[in-house]
Write a structure and sequence with these properties.
The protein is an alpha+beta fold and 185 residues long. The protein has 6 helices and 7 strands; from the N terminus they run ααααββββββαβα. The chain has one domain.
Length: 185
Amino acid sequence: MTTSDWAAGRPRGHHYTVAHGVVRAIALQQPTDLAAFALAGLLDELLGRIWQGEGDKLPEEERLAPDGLGSTLYWGPGDEMLAVMAFPAPERMTEAYFTAALFPKTLEARYFTLEFTRTLDGGTATVVGEWAKDGHLNFGAGPEPTAELFVQRIGEMVGLQPWVWRDPEHYASLRDAARRMLGRG
């Protein structure tokens, strides 16, 4: 394998830095901030600002369009919150299809990834991972890359089922409080 072959297999810096770096750091170090943006319905805006900011640090040819960037909020059986974030289509190993910040009823969060990988025969697959404070954990083969199957897998891993999407009107008082907390209400 030549150096250029190896470099071509590395994740694209823009993609990896946002999903595995910046958003992970916010989820694990400032979970109440990320939860507030998610509850307020402002997580897509935050992701867009992060994507743009990280792209601005890169040469033009290394910047990626934010196509597919977005988020969906799910609720667990005890009103636990799961903010699932979608990223532009991954092309290289370890780039994330999705990440998810799980907010149990504590001030801490867990941060999961559904990553693109290749099989030994050259096919494509997914891997489920989790970033913890002391490093990255690999939980092996993941589901097909859909938000619903990723959410289901997380639920199985943490012992919380079912997860449901709720109309934002269902949690309007929380959304309004989060917006006020962020100076947007």
